[in-house]
Amino acid sequence: MAIRTRMTMAMIINTSITPMADLAPNTALVRLMTWLSPAFPVGAFSYSHGIERAVHDGLINDKTSLQDWLVDLMNHGSVWNDAVLFAASWRDTGGRCVEESELGEAMAGSKERHMETMLQGNAFLQAVEHWSNAESSVAREMPYPVAVAMVAARNKVACEPALAAYLHAVVSNLIQGAVRLVPLGQSHGVSLMAAMETQILAVTERAARSSLDDLGSAAIMSDIMAMQHETQYSRVFRS
Fold this sequence. Notes:
By secondary structure, the protein is mostly helical. Helices cover 60% and strands 0% of the residues.
């Protein structure tokens, strides 16, 4: 299937794997913008996903090296696994996402990666209780992509736009961290977000049609950076 060049309003209400009637386009769009806004209280701004250590070691030192790093994460690393878990959690007919939660927690390859996904997931579930379909009875131990996907499904937000918005938020957060760490100019950050748009949409389409059998990471250097960040003497970010 050809890669979409932009997310249209039609994506909000049309996706081949939707098992229920979706929200009206504007409602779903506003809801996604709220949940995945930098202002939503999950603490995403405090995590660099190991990028701080990669900058420290000179592996990321400009816009090009940062883009290469992000592309690898999205296609072969932890962000790809998060996308697969997101799609599987959205489709979970039981609505509790037990298997996906256990897998997501087990696949966090370092102490800080575990903290990053679990604390953000728990914070998201607490903050999203303002929406009636979030169900406050859900246990507070759930990886971030699983939590967002479960709440999106319960609120009848279609899978692909929800996943695209989630990936956009993750990439945007990492770029903003790198803008401060490398450092890069704000114009470079915006330019990189534009360049990553095609990647975000391509990974969204591929992950939306994936299964848990497609989980797997080969971004070994990113995992090593995340482990080494735990003992870094001076740091700005929590991961």
